[in-house]
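Researcher: Quick one. two chains, 606 residues in total.
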Amino acid sequence: MPTLGFRYNTSRRKSYLAAFLVPSLAVIFMFFLVPVLLTLLISLTKMRFSFRWEWVYLGNYVKMMHDRWTPKILSNTLLYVFSTLTLFNVGTGLLISIITNHINEKVGAAFRAIWLLPRITPSTVYALMWLWAIREEPSALFNWILTSLGFEPIKWLWYNPPINWLVIIAVNGFVGASFGMIIFTAALKSIPEDYIRAAKVDGASTWQVVRHVELPLMKWPIMFVTAYQTLSLLTSYEYILLVTDGGPGLYTTEVWALYSYHRAFSQYAGGGELGYGAALSTILVIIGLIMSVIYWKVFRLEELMVEPKIED
Amino acid sequence: MVKSYNRRFIRIKEKLSSAILYLIMSVITLPIILMYLMLFLQSISEELIGLMPTRLTLNNWFFLSDGYIKVPGTEGTFYPNFYLVAFNTFMLALLVGFLEVIFSSLAGYSLSRYKFKGRTQLLALILVLHSFPGITLLIALFYILNVIGLYDTLLGVIIVKVALDLPLGIWIMKGFFDGVSWDMEMSALVDGCNRLQAWWKVVLPSVRNGLMAVLIFGFLSGWSEFIYILTFISTQRYWTLSMLVNALTSSEYFHISPGITAVAAVFYMIPVVMFFLFAQKYLLRIQIASKGTV
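Model:
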């Protein structure tokens, strides 16, 4: 740095520095870092709504291993994360970005805008629309369409796991697809036009351009979306809570994160166990921490942490 | 002859494949369009058969005259006044938005401009937290709010939202500050501004887009919040629209017309639609920076 006409005295500069960082660091410490530690500590207790610290140490984890619902919840979670991720977050996201990249640009942008709508719609309104659309009456939106096309109406929310899961995956997927869509579209737009024009001149069809030019260049974005959305799906339960609340029946669509919520906050039997809920959450917290660190390493985010351009 | 035939064949093939693309795109997008259409039509019809209203009416909207949602067959209501709920939602969203802008622009500036011991570690921490799912901390946050006496207050919800959104906000703002030339700021300092004045008068105006992005993100994040309200609020007086819409979702058991529920939901959507129509570039920017909720 060239010598500047004057220098700040260090203590004054430091006091500005402190003043600027303090508000953020204080709330992040108190309501982000402390909760990480507290989740771990509460998971070692039998805490209920009286907030008494009755230590059971690893008792909750032993209980988790013997919980008759653990295998069911675990397989539900894997099914939910894997299906939503492949069918929607990556699959549909990729489909939308490739198609909208090959049709009229304005129409394509309009389609992408529509897909962004579920993401910014408040979850309760979004869930309300789904719950109305899938009501069992023939007059409800989806059954109305089905019956007009000559199909039988479907009882979407009656106990029928394949149908129930279809609903849950679609509800989450129509929100989830837009993240991949944005990332993939940005990646597609960065492919030099010459590549595509050269392929077209050589007589390649749209499908061949997609298959041999675009998809190979999407490997990295697909990995990025897969990694980020796996963690998001693993820990998200808001839409499931609103649409099926883990039902119908016992834990048909209950996933790990929702199970933790229910064990801690449900008003029904099995609820109110903050300690056990925290133990279930701790598993997710640990997975979350590990994956966050991995993203940071793998996606070379530290390159973003270059030295400031300014005086020391 | 053969050649021109070939070319025409290729052109037809191109047109056909482009038609197929439009068709696929329309079919997969249709459910979204139909659901929003259904919600809107429901708000202006007596009854809805699929997408066909039996009769169009504005009756559903009349409860907005005083915000009182009367339960048919009773003299009372189960629900807090609509305008109180809307006001709560607005205040929550506004405060979350403004606090996030203020906190993250201060911290982002500091992290962009100053070199200090522990800066690298702090940036690493913020990056890791930015992809860490805050929702997993619900139980611990519930405990903390109870212990410090902020359970069942909107202030508690606001602070939690701000804390969990901040790593993203700081990250966005730091990026914007990195793009502001140091020379410009330096000349302000040479002209006799102190650090704070230079920040306020020179730096902040040139990161207006970043401030808008964080403000809109914070506002929408507060406006739509559901789980933290559901878990940290127990008094109806502090409900926000997400709680009211959720309660009205099952209101048919109390013979409240779905039309009223639809009106509440459409009203709730107004700011979202405004931002959607007029501020999409900010929304896109945030979606790329954020990890996305699902």
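Chain A touches chain B through 119 residues (CB under 8 Å).
Researcher: Thanks, that's what I needed.
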